UniProtKB/TrEMBL annotation:
Keywords in alphabetical order: ATP-binding, Helicase, Hydrolase, Nucleotide-binding
Xref: PROSITE patterns: HELICASE_ATP_BIND_1, HELICASE_CTER
Protein name, as recorded: Putative ATP-dependent helicase
The Helicase ATP-binding domain, residue ranges: 12-165
Gene source species: Pseudoalteromonas tunicata D2
Source organism, top-level taxon: Bacteria
Xref: PANTHER family: ATP-DEPENDENT RNA HELICASE HRPB
InterPro entries, per database record: DEAD/DEAH_box_helicase_dom (IPR011545), Helicase_ATP-bd (IPR014001), Helicase_C-like (IPR001650), P-loop_NTPase (IPR027417)
Pfam families: DEAD (PF00270), Helicase_C (PF00271)
Keyword Hydrolase applies: yes
GO molecular function annotation: ATP binding; helicase activity; hydrolase activity; nucleic acid binding
Annotated ranges, domain Helicase C-terminal: 191-351
Amino acid sequence: MTLPIDSIKDTFLHSLGKQPLIVSAQTGSGKSTRLPLWAAQSGKVLVIEPRRIACTALAQYLAEQSNSPLGDKIGYAIRFESHFSADTRIVFATPGVVLRWFFENKLTDYQTVILDEFHERRWDTDLLLALLKKHNCHQLVVTSATLHAEQLASYLSGKILTAKGRSFPIEMRYHAADMRQMPCKEKLAERVLQACNIALSEARADILVFLAGKADIDFVASKLMHLPVLLVPLHGGSDAQSQTIALQSQSKRRIILATNIAETSLTLEGVDCVIDSGLEKRTHLRAGRTVLDLDTISMDSSMQRAGRAGRTSPGLCIRLYGEFAPLIAHTPAESQRCSLNEMVLSAACAGGGIEQLDFLEPLPASSLLLAKQQLLAINAIDQQGHATEHGKRLYPLPINSDLAHLITHMPTNALRQAMADAAALLAVPKQVYQLSQQLEHTQALNEQLPHHCDLELAIALIRGNVTDWVKVDDDALQEARQFAVQIRQAFDLPPLEKPASYQRSALIEAIATHLPRALFIHNARKNSLSNGELEVIAAKHSRFNNQSAALVLDTFSLAGKGVKQAKTLALCMAPICNKRIVALGLCTTKIEGAELDNNEIKVIIAHTFAGKVLATQSQLATPAQLPEAACQLIAQELILPGLWQKITHQLLWAGLYQQLNNCITTLPTTHEFIAQALTDLAIEGADDFELLSADDFAVHIIPEWEYADFTEKYPLYLQLPDLHVTVEYQLVKKLVVVHYLKGLRKEAPKRWELPSWSGLKIRYKKASKEVEIR
């Protein structure tokens, strides 16, 4: 069978190895299947596929086409599963697997490396491209359907090869309230059902519906059950049977409900209609953490999705948004919108560090700095950016550096096991379980795990203890247990079959101690929680019951019209009481007040976390606290009465004097001045104040011989007949404002009643009324 990509075969073979090749071709052109076979003529080929389903499906397809067993001539490698040998000529592998191979032997087993579907711009493929460019030891091929090839060719000093895909006309329709309506989730299932009814009557073959994630797929499927079709889910966690049904034509008409996994790489036979929700799951950086948001797609993705309808015949595309919806042009590269911790640690393990690599686009400086700081804090990298032994141990694990760090720092073997099992469940990129809606199941779960703790439930699920009381995705749980086995082995922990019992409270306290930013304080008024940087609300499937505080170990963000409308859901929560946070020393402490008690100075200490006072306590002031406490008592006129006002006036005059003499320095506040003076005087207790007078606190800015005349010329307070006023000097504006304080006089003061203030305008202000005095 002839494919569009065949038109560049001779040029490809002639150019391979002479310089990097950038192959630009539309989806369906055959680039993912033809290029590896051509490149294999000159040696072993490694094809890097961003998605696991595409990786396994392409290997299986080419093995069948070559009439050889999978793993013989053609094989694949994904996490926990591989089918290839040392003699396999073509190996399809996911980026994470290839990165580990690169660290081990720089991919010396392969002559050609193909980075397929590079336009998806994952951080790991960006890193692999930078590493391969620096290493410069392979015949490099980069393929893309939508990428601007010129940018990549310039970056690699490569050659662009272009093949036009086979494309049939596609009728475009828009189901939206107005032409600029953006994609949204509101009444999504109902709108998909309406579009499917149109497609079933007007299209001839199978229907492909693009949705954001598994939850949407499941919900929409429940609304389409009555249709006379075969409903096929297709997402990252689909089982082998669903994948086979989605990838191969069936005797019964199909509606394939897919995530954007179906945009590229995979060929879905028999589809002539696409229904596009315009939604996808996309990572974003929020408060230094990578969160997964529900987001609108880019124009590039919109075109990719529509193109699926015209692969083999004229097609129909129904978009559930407006024709002129202001979509972004291109999906930003993942490295521009996620935490760079994993990328920095990966580059460090590869040797040389991330600073030694040249990327297609410069990495965000703030994200890069934050990643380095966090990895340094957990001793994963050194000051030069190289991986430590600890970092090399953490990198291969299927968990982020924070969770790996927590496992390392658990104080006992039992807690390390518990943290390892929790991290394993959190590492699965889909929902492992849902809480049952049946009352008897809820009651049984609460009896077995009475603390309303998601973390405790996660560990119990990994260990097989509560599967009867929750709805479990068996494939996801199996993957989580595989992760648990791998993590336990990496940390030399006992096998999963022999887990140690642990104390829930001890686990929570250890996590809070070593990862304080995971602590969130509950705000009853807003029914939300905050750690001072990020605000979250408990997800519906969390067991958290609005207690005072919680650890949050996983989040998911829902898209909004703006930052303020966006919501971040807390998915894995573990309640902790305020008293324990205070006892663990995780709060910021400050003196909130002071009091005199039997001639002893006491301070009221506020323990604050995330801007909220969790506890207060009264105690005798220590020598270090005494100046601050005494300062507050002076402000309250409880000791040295009149001193606070005197210093306040002296500082105002001092500032005015400096302005008039063009000698401006930063003056302390009244509080700062008195506190420093008390420190200098070495006050040791309340009795010492009996030995002090106001003269011990003089502000020495105005020369003594000028002081009396100056303060008389520029008074701060005036007592006039039936009128008391304060005086504000705004010398920059050449203005004096006289403020009403008290008195029975209704009219403004007369000019002759006031000081001369030559060269300055004078205004009188009472409440909101302001008049000029002439």
